[in-house]
Design a protein that fits this description.
Blueprint lengths: L3 E8 L2 E7 L5 H13 L6 E7 L2 E8 L2 E8 L5 H18 L12 H17 L5 H84 L6 H4 L1
Antiparallel strand pairs: 1-2, 1-5, 3-4, 4-5
Helix pairs in contact: 2-3
Length: 223
């Protein structure tokens, strides 16, 4: 399980409060790490020390050291955000009393705070500000992509609508052209039919005249 399993707050080599989420020898190793950090000349520093598959992260500020043990898979950002949070809460709660408090003077009260914050930073994704920001950006990107897809989908529908409108316009032009062609065909058919009827009528008149005028030359009728 990935998370923060142990935390200690100390002034110099005096442990003021600590809490362990699991039964380990973290407290013993933490004291060795604490002694190692006290050997440095810097009043303020951040450091990390690996031990098996765990890492001890140390934040030292103005003589107050906050130390935690976390799974190495948790990285550095979350543990140091946790240490910064604990440091601020501890200073805000106890102020100048930190300078003269005996060992474990704040343990009974502040160990509960350590427990709560360890659980928060181990299990709550929103505890990591950068990851939270990335999550918010991911949500915005998701909405943007979703909106773009909706616009594109609407564009597709508009394109289809334009294509359908173009098809209808083309059909209307073809219908008009076909109607004109059909009208012309009917006109020519009527002309041909009229010509044929006139021709038949003239032939009938001629045949009648041939009988009446006694010959094809209509001689008797022309005298």
């Amino acid at each position: 399980m990935m998370g923060i399993f142990y935390c200690m707050v100390a002034r110099g080599n005096v442990v003021l409060a600590e809490f362990s989420a699991t039964p380990t020898n973290a407290s013993t190793v933490a004291r060795q790490v604490l002694e190692k950090t006290l050997q440095g000349d810097k009043d303020s520093s951040n450091a990390s020390y690996s031990h098996d598959r765990y890492v001890f992260h140390v934040k030292k500020t103005d003589g107050l050291t906050v130390l935690c043990m976390a799974d190495d898979a948790l990285g550095r950002r979350i543990p140091f955000a946790f240490l910064e949070d604990i440091h601020q809460k501890f200073v805000k709660t106890y102020g100048r009393a930190i300078l003269s408090a005996p060992a474990y003077a704040m343990n009974e009260e502040f160990s509960r705070v350590l427990s709560q914050q360890m659980d928060h930073y181990s299990n709550d994704p929103n505890a990591d500000r950068l990851n939270r920001l990335k999550g918010e950006m991911s949500q915005v990107r998701s909405v943007m992509i979703d909106n773009i897809e909706k616009v594109l989908d609407r564009g597709d529908r508009l394109t289809l609508l334009v294509e359908k409108t173009g098809t209808l316009q083309g059909s209307a032009v073809r219908f008009k052209r076909n109607s004109r062609r059909f009208k012309n065909t009917l006109w020519w058919r009527n002309v041909k039919l009229t010509f044929a009827l006139v021709s038949v009528l003239m032939i009938i008149v001629y045949v009648v005249l041939v009988f009446v005028c006694h010959g094809p030359f209509l001689a008797s009728c022309l005298k």
